[in-house]
Amino acid sequence: MGETFSHEARARGSRLIALAGPFQCGKTTLLEAILASNKTIAKQGSVVDGSSVGDASPEARAHKMSVEANIAAVDYMGDRYTFVDLPGSVEFAHEARNILPAVDAAIVVCEADERKVAALQLTLRQLEELGVPHLLFLNKIDAATIDVRDALNILQPASRAPLLLRQIPIWSNGVAVGFIDLALERAYVYREHAPSEVVEIPQGEAALEKEARYSMLERLADYDDALMEELISDIEPPRDQVFDDLTKELRGGLVVPVFIGSAERGAGVTRLLKALRHEAPGVAETRARLGVAENGPPMARVLRTTHTSHGGKLSIARVLRGDVSDGQTVRSPQGEDRVSGMSRFAGAALTKVTDAKEGDVVALGRLEHAQTGDTVIADGKADLAGLATRARAPDPVHALALVVKDRKDEMRLAAAMAKLVEEDPSLIFVHDQEMSQIKLYGQGEMHLRVALERLQSRFGVTVEVSRPIVAYRETIRHKVTVRGRHKKQSGGHGQFGDVVLEVAPRERGEGFAFAERVHGGAVPKQYFSSVEAGCQDALIHGPLGFPVVDVEAVLTDGSYHTVDSSDMAFRTAARIGMSEALGKAEPILLEPVLAVDIFVPSEAMSRATGLVSARRGQIIGFGPREGWTGWDKLEALIPEAEMDNLIVELRSATAGAGFFQSRFDHLAEVVGKQAREIVAAHSSQPARMAVG
Q: Which pLDDT does position 7 carry in this prediction?
């Protein structure tokens, strides 16, 4: 427990740091402040007025929110840092899945807002499960209305590891004008968009500083026996020992250090960067976490994929081992590619380079086989097994049906969507042959809206959208016997087929079955398969206009002609007979019902149950979400027709944190007025049906 780190052990070389956290907590503004503090940009811009380096895409500007990861690099005190600003909205959170495993550490930007604790927990849980060291930047301290320790009490339930206060604010007339660093025992006064100024610890704050510092040391002593003995003996620990413990416990995920500041004013940024410089791990530790050996051929992980209008496909990758050069051949799980062009980040811009060093983040051109999340290696014989693979895309929760406004754009639509899906693997684009619909699935209303905006602005394809058609089915209620007869004479050989069918319902989910009980050769055996095929032809469109399921047909009798009978004649006779049987057997409408698992903060459970009830849902069970403090899980059955916009209302009820997973469960009968309206909407033709 007494293991220490010296400052000589601080990570060297290029580092990759994620900026993560809930929606609208100031991540993009913090990136702007970091760039401005290092003179990478001349002046700090604003997200609100559209002058920030991050969120530069037309979609981000239009919606005033991050809709993809923003990447920018700075040089700080001789080291290179690449920062990746991750979207805070849960609809774009999938961006982080393939990026976070390759970062060295994360700054989680948050504020003292109880409404955002659940969203903060989602971020922290992802970092915890990946083993990524992380610290908290408590933003907007200049606008805080509560004591910083009360703020930590609000935020602590979101974190499995203890939140460790590293700084306390200096207050003047109810406004935070500076802070005291508890490790350095030094006071700073904020200066607008400039490094803070060192001052004497105000007399009125000295007692608070001593108390807060002792609390910090007590927490560190939980993992350092030597420090515990010093505290018990009332011995002041050496400053180097304190920093060694802070470094060790950050890297080990034992504590989450908490820094304070104001990204909008650039306050607290310098101390944050110095903490990263001295305490955050580097690429060597990240390799170990990912199970990548120290020695071996050059290796990189693809963080993002983009398609540019002039440069083609770009794979933004983090070099995990060795050096990668332009023109080098690299192999991914899908095949080999030759790097054709290489750029590195200077601020948020890309500049051409010929090679990349270990730890660097670069854009590699023309890696046609490599996909987002892939590990690529510069050795055609190396074994890729066991290396980190791309993260599984989240299940979709929202869908739209698409129709191109101009028919000549249909082929362009497929090509454009292929590129958008490669950039964003959480999009799913399908052509539903049965429903004759093109569908786009994603993570929410805004997610799909942004995808369609990109489709139009980048590829010139405009579509109209609607709700996807629900895959209704029909079946029958009773058993009937019918005769199907097909006879046609038109010169030469005629057509003759004659069958007697016994048609009956089957249990739900058993599908279609065919059998024969023909005696005396009334129908020759060679026509049995044609009779079965004819029955199946009739199932494509039942009396109500929908595919028919869960029925059986038994061929019991019939007749044939030695000259005029044929496979086609018996197939046609069977289709005629089966169609008549379905109409006589009291057809009923079936709708798909989904099993839905809804996850919400506990205080939102009543709102979630209300959403289920309002959608003709049936609650199956509920209880605490396993392993998640303050969260519940609600299990329900909900008709697919009622799922539209469920994710929108669920997120509205949970400050953006709630989500669900769904899967097909069964088909259920629809009766009465609702059934009649569905059939009428599907077809204007009258139909006989049971409505219960």
A: 46
In angstroms, the CA 260 to CA 459 distance is 43
pLDDT tens column, 429-448: 999 998 889 999 999 999 99
C-alpha 173, offset from chain centre: 44
For residue 428, name the pLDDT band (cuts at 50, 70, 90).
Answer: very high
Dist CA 593 CA 12 (whole Å):
56
| Amino acid identity for residue 499 in this structure | V
pLDDT average, residue stretch 677-689: 68
- The answer to whether residues 166 and 258 touch, using CB atoms and an 8 Å cutoff, is yes
Q: Which long-range contacts (CB under 8 A, 24 or more apart) does 629-632 make?
A: 629/157, 630/117, 630/118, 630/121, 630/157, 630/601, 630/602, 631/118, 631/121, 631/599, 631/600, 631/601, 631/602, 632/599, 632/600, 632/601, 632/602, 632/605, 632/608
Say what the pLDDT of residue 386 is.
67
The answer to whether 30 and 37 have CB atoms below 8 angstroms apart is no
Give residue for tokens 């560190």: 220
Query: What is the C-alpha to C-alpha distance for residues 200 and 187, in angstroms, rounded to an integer?
Result: 6
Closest CA to 300 of 359, 353, 371, 366: 359
Across 574-583, average pLDDT: 98
Q: What is the Cα–Cα distance from 248 to 242, expressed in whole angstroms?
A: 10
Q: Determine phi and psi for 560, rounding to 5 degrees.
A: -145, 170
Q: In Å, how far are 157, 212, 244, 609, 675 from 140, measured between CA atoms?
A: 20, 21, 29, 35, 54
Give the up-direction half-sphere exposure of residue 296: CA atoms within 13 A in the CB hemisphere.
Answer: 20
Rounded to 5°, the CA angle 190-191-193 comes to 120
Q: Please report, rounded to a whole number, the percentage of residues in the chain having pLDDT higher than 70.
A: 97
Torsion of CA 190, 196, 202, 205, to 10 degrees: 70
Sheet with 70-76, side-by-side order of all strands:
70-76, 79-85, 15-20, 105-110, 134-138, 256-260, 163-165
Average pLDDT over residues 356-382: 92
Q: Which helix or strand (DSSP H or E) is residue 269 part of?
A: helix 269-279
Q: Do residues 653 and 608 touch, judged by C-beta distance below 8 A?
A: yes
Cα-flanking dihedrals φ and ψ of residue 74, to 5°?
Answer: -135, 155
